[in-house]
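question for whoever is on the cluster today: can someone run the full assembly for these? two chains, 831 residues total. i dont have access anymore since they changed the login thing
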Amino acid sequence: MKKLFVFTIVGLTALFLSSQFFESSSKSEDLSVSSITSDKTQTKTLRSVASVELGQKLKQLDDLENCLDSRKCGFSNSDSREYDLEVGRAIKVELEKLYEYISDEEIEDEWVSELGRRYIQFEDGHIKEAALMLLSTQAPSDKNLEVVLSEVISFHSAPLVELGLLELTKYKTPVWNRRIDESFMKNLNSGSLVVRQLLAKKISQFLTNDNRAMYKEFAATTNDSKVKRYIEAALSK
Amino acid sequence: MKRIMTLILLFLITLAPNVTAAPDDTPDWWNCNNRTSGEWKFGRAPDVCDMDSFIDLNYVNNEFSDFVFYDSEDRDSERERYMTEVHALINEVANYYYKKRRSEVSEAELQVFLRSALSIGHQESFWSHYRTPTHGKVQFMRSGGDYGHGHGMFQVDDRWHFPAIKDGTAANIVMNMIYSLEEYFDAWERAPAAGCAAEDDYEARGRSAYSAFNGGPSRICRWTNPNDRWARNDKGWWSKYQNRGWENYIQDFDKVSSVDVDCIVQGNEGCLRDSDDDDEPQVGRIYKSEAGKFCSFTNGEFECVSLLQDASCLALKGGDDFANYRGRFRRMPKDFEDEYNFSEIDRHEVCHNFSNDLTRVSKSIKVLKNINLRKSPAGAWLVTIPANRVVQVLDFNLKSSFKEERYYKVKYKNHIGFIYAGNKEDSKSWSLEVSEKAEDRTIAANSDKVRVVEESGVSVYSADGTLLRELVLDEVIEVMDSSVLGSLNEIRYAIGNDEFVKAGFSGDLYNLEEVFSVIKKTRTPVYRVASLRKKTWWKKLRLCPSKKCKKSGSLKGPRLSKKTFHVTSHQGDWLLIEQGSKKGWLRSKYVVYQ
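^ ran it for u. tokens below:
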């Protein structure tokens, strides 16, 4: 009886503590913008206090990644897709929690971009989207642009590309425009069939005096009739 | 003691974390009404369910009748007929897809890809998609092996790909395969880098791509492990690839499919074609050019429209010449394009001049009965518009020159889609043109005021194209008249004496609400003007006030846009946001009031 009592208390305590971990992210969301002051000391203190929580979240992500590799975690495996689906969802949930935390704290730091760049390379479109949201909180950079172009714009999911195009509006400078045009032309020519139609539909926000001639020439020669009409309509504005 | 223990146990269990999957899990057999069983043989894999909410059944019965398995027919002969047709279709879809992605492709590579696609269909669904059981209603295959999560020929899974299920992509047999091949091709390309296939070992690439397709992207090398829990799926696919069991049923390996795959991929409906080629242009036929235009041969030259939906208007214009025309087009031989003159016909001119009572774009109609609004004329159901509602015509689609069946694109509340409005005989029982202004109008009526919502402003031109001045964001002008032209329905407003503005498009590039907002004299809800927090680049809106709700558009922050939005309601710490046509919920912490 005593052993049973001790065992139960230990087990329940472990259960209680793990519930606190899952709730900790929601507690962090309770931090409002107004609580973050311009006092660097206070901000630094806040981040160092938060780093323990962040460390736990990052560990959770690592564990879930290992679940994908090992396939030995307790996720359902009742059909051929379910295990990956469940792990993918769990990773997405953790990334979304991080996104909320980073948004709340208005954190702009290279580690966030590194994390986003890491997970955006997963082939799961739902994980890519959550990773893209992490990148969306950060200032534009060469490295972030490259992964958005290679892992999102060149992917085959129209909903994801739509968000990617929104992210690309941060990159409207002459140097970055050229990279974007290169990616767009590659995808318009040989990319996903549904994505190329979406790119053509949304192209007007990326047209500049420098690239109009290029897209005009492309529209004149493509045999994708919908892509052609959309680009010609954008050029007519 | 035992009671205390039990109470503690119960108390602490309530604090346990919720580790169940996300609540947008599609339940088993979601939206699968009137489930009908089958058998694991070609064309009749179990089960089939109703698909009315995904796709219009009349469209399926007309467009895809060759690819419906009819249970009422003799089973063996029906199977042979069905397999011959579906074999042609899968081959054509896969061939089309691969050549669109690869400008140069070796025959060996292509043949492996084609055979892989045929094998996917065999493994996933025994080539089953549409079937009409003995009860007489055409239904759609939903896999018993995956508890109804797999949809159609290539088993698009509603847990991974819910948007494609909801919008009817998976229900369309051609788009089901195109959508799936996008994923398959992605894995085909990744296989060499993943280490389980050499670049030029196409069969290994095919096997890898199938493992990823079936098990998820990370499972790309699953086929290399014969002891994997799901190895049987890879073995099954490989066995089917090697044995090509479908060949036992094909009556004609060279059959050309009756549907034009490119036509469907370009978003058209009514893509049936005649497989024969003409040596000389024939009067009374519609030809599809290399550039995707649809043309009739009249007085020694070709007259063309950009959209297939307007080919009916060309047929109406041709009068008795088109007495035998029933909606199919032919491929235009290349030498026709070199030898004859071509002219482009304005769709608005030809369709209105030669049809009966077709309502023009921008006019108001009152719907006279409850009418379903669909994403496209034959697409997924959106909402039902109640009788007596007045809506504005944004586009029209005239199907069947013979019956002049018309569909109107309209906006009803937050939905934009197509309604059926009858044929030339009974259109007046479906809707009537009225002078009343539609509450949901997005093309300004005469004397309406509009506000500029295009951030970069709008240019004002004279009739000869001279740039006169610029309107700025939030500027309000009065519209004197509107006009529409071109295949995308470009809308132009006259705003003064020889002063015009381009107001956007109301066709399939619909963007009217991104240029001007029509100011309506309806009761204006109380709102506050706000923007996102300064450091926020952009945020997604949600359909409902919860992080678990689906996306509903997005907003740009002050670093990307000067545009503000309206906060019209709140629920808890969520705010209902409206910006032009965008409407959705956002956490209040991200919002700063002006």
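summary bc i know u wont read the tokens: Residues 449-519 of chain B form one domain. The first helix of chain B runs from residue 2 to 13.
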